[in-house]
Each structure stands twice: as C-alpha cells, then as structure tokens.
Amino acid sequence: MGKQKAPRTLGETEAKAVARMIRISPQKLNLLAQLIRGKKVDTALADLQFSRKRIALDVRKTLESAIANAENNHDLDVDDLVVAEAYVGKALVMKRFSPRARGRAGRIEKPFSNLTIIVREVAQEAA
C-alpha cells in the first residue's frame, strides 16, 4: 500500500513552482519577487529579461516553470495567467571563516534562499 494522495492545496485555477537552494540572500531575492508580484506573466517575463540583477535568470526560470505547470498539468490558459504570489524563504546558511588581523578569524555567511511562485488564471472581462 502507500500513503494516500495528498489533497491539492491550491485552487483549481492556480499552479505553483518552487526553486530551492538559490545562492543569494533572501533580502536581495525579495527585490525581484516584489518586481513581478501581481503582474501578468508576459509582463513579468519581460521585466525579468531586462533586469540587471544576476539572479533574474533563476527567477525567470522558476516563473517559466510555473507557467508550464499551469499549461500542462492544470490545463490553464497561458494568456490569462497572473503572478498571484511570489514569496521568498530562508534556506541554509553556509558559514565560512576568513583570516583577519592579529590571529583572529572573521565569519563569512553565505545564505541560500527558496523562491515560490504561484500563478493564477484570471478570466478576461468582455470589453
């Protein structure tokens, strides 16, 4: 036997993608999450394409994964998708030490982050 299938936590018109262990601090990653939050997916992809931040490529890949999940797994229309939620969580922090003056050691922290993007299908109003 096995475990029962977990119930779906998202709504019927939502899809999710998670990028784990991204090598950047959560504070810096949250700047890009704020940039795309609430926008239509094609606008968000364009913003990430022309962003000068190094990590924008990873955020873009995660957003494209959420779009692909919506299209292939949940049969949602790509043209009607909106970035409903984009949030950042802390992952592990690697601790490293660097030699300092007079025999001391300075601690260097190298943080990792998790990024979750949820896209939602919004019905177009008849104009």
From TrEMBL:
Highest taxon of source: Bacteria
Gene3D superfamilies noted in UniProt: Ribosomal protein L22/L17
Keywords: Ribonucleoprotein, Ribosomal protein, RNA-binding, rRNA-binding
A Pfam family per the record: Ribosomal_L22
Transmembrane segments: none
GO MF annotation: an example: rRNA binding
GO cellular component, one term: cytosolic large ribosomal subunit
Role summary: The globular domain of the protein is located near the polypeptide exit tunnel on the outside of the subunit, while an extended beta-hairpin is found that lines the wall of the exit tunnel in the center of the 70S ribosome. This protein binds specifically to 23S rRNA; its binding is stimulated by other ribosomal proteins, e.g., L4, L17, and L20. It is important during the early stages of 50S assembly. It makes multiple contacts with different domains of the 23S rRNA in the assembled 50S subunit and ribosome.
Name of the molecule in the record: Large ribosomal subunit protein uL22
Gene behind the chain: rplV
